Amino acid sequence: MSSQDIPEETLPSKQGDTREGAVTVKGDPFADPGLPPHEHRVQDIDERAAKRSERAVAFMFTLSMLATVGFIAAYLAIPIDKNIYVFPLGHISAMNFTLGLTLGVALFCIGAGAVHWARTLMSDEERIDERHPIEASPEVKAKVMADFAEGAKESAMGRRPLIRNTMFGALALMPLSALFLFGGLGPKPGTKLRKSKWAAGKLLVNQNTMQPLRPEDVQVGSLTFAMPQGMSEEDHDFQVQIAKAALMIVRLRPEDIKDKKELDWSVDGIVAFSKICTHVGCPISLYEQQTHHVLCPCHQSTFDLSDGGRVVFGPAGHALPQLRIKVNDKGYLEAMGDFAEPVGPAFWERG
């Protein structure tokens, strides 16, 4: 039997419902019950309790400020290589542990302070608004602005200057943590990008045989990879140094060399160029004997080793740096100095 079959006067009525927002419809057993009566918090009726909550929120914001200051102090004062024992983690970096702890406390206290403020001091009365079309009418817009103004008033920002000031202080100091973190992404390069392990008198060592090279070891059309004398794969910074010092050695016929400077810096057609592509720093390893071109396998930048290492194709921005070489008194190939320009991709400070 449906409700339509029951006389209307026998159905329960909602006329006696006093809850806020209750919809009273005679004969409807499923009417909207509305919201229960609002229960005031202790802070709403006791100003001393409200003051305690205010001090608690201010304490959390102040603690956030102190944690941010501690973060900066730890970053500046703790050596990067200092380790401490923390149970159950074991030995860990003192700086990383302190930075994580202070940053976590700073963020947590801002969030906890905001939540405690909202739960104890801001208005918690629930209100019912009828749904409205997506496009707001002028009346709705005016109501929104009025609600915003009332919300700002009920947040007690004006009447609670202690909370307001400490919150602004915590939010203002918090971004300083990011600034110090960005500064610690790595040491300033200084002149490291402009210098390599090559220097006057350094022998050219075959990277495969680890033996110094003589002119007769380099045949016309061959490609040989070399590194400076004194470097070893066992060196702790070998990968960093070889990334700048890796060398390509090619022997051309002197009459095939088009660039006069390249000819002057060569020995009987033996030319030495950086192996590092000037696009994004990939190692070059493909050589075309007939064209004297070398090809970067990463993005196909192509360089002409018979014409000063200039770019003939691809995204590379500038020519490969050439190393000036000579034959010493013992018949070995040696460098006459470092590369005349920085090796690898361009950077802001490059001239």
Automatic annotation (TrEMBL):
A GO cellular component annotation in the UniProt record: plasma membrane
Alphabetical list of InterPro entries matching this protein: QcrA_N (IPR045603), Rieske_2Fe-2S (IPR017941), Rieske_2Fe-2S_sf (IPR036922), Rieske_Fe-S_prot (IPR014349), Rieske_Fe-S_prot_C (IPR005805)
Compartments it resides in: Cell membrane
Chain segments annotated as transmembrane: 56-78, 98-118, 167-186
Membrane topology: Multi-pass membrane protein
Chief place of localization: membrane
Segments of this protein annotated with the region Disordered: 1-40
Single GO MF descriptor: metal ion binding
Keyword Protein biosynthesis assigned: no
Cofactor(s) essential for the protein: [2Fe-2S] cluster
Leader sequence residues: none
Record domain Rieske: where: 239-334
Domain of life, source organism: Bacteria
Coiled coil: none
Record-linked CDD domains: Rieske (cd03467)
Keywords: 2Fe-2S, Cell membrane, Disulfide bond, Electron transport, Iron, Iron-sulfur, Membrane, Metal-binding, Oxidoreductase, Respiratory chain, Transmembrane, Transmembrane helix, Transport
Subunit structure: The cytochrome bc1 complex is composed of a cytochrome b (QcrB), the Rieske iron-sulfur protein (QcrA) and a diheme cytochrome c (QcrC) subunit.
Job of this protein: Iron-sulfur subunit of the cytochrome bc1 complex, an essential component of the respiratory electron transport chain required for ATP synthesis. The bc1 complex catalyzes the oxidation of menaquinol and the reduction of cytochrome c in the respiratory chain. The bc1 complex operates through a Q-cycle mechanism that couples electron transfer to generation of the proton gradient that drives ATP synthesis.
Family membership: Belongs to the Rieske iron-sulfur protein family.
The name this protein goes by in its record: Cytochrome bc1 complex Rieske iron-sulfur subunit
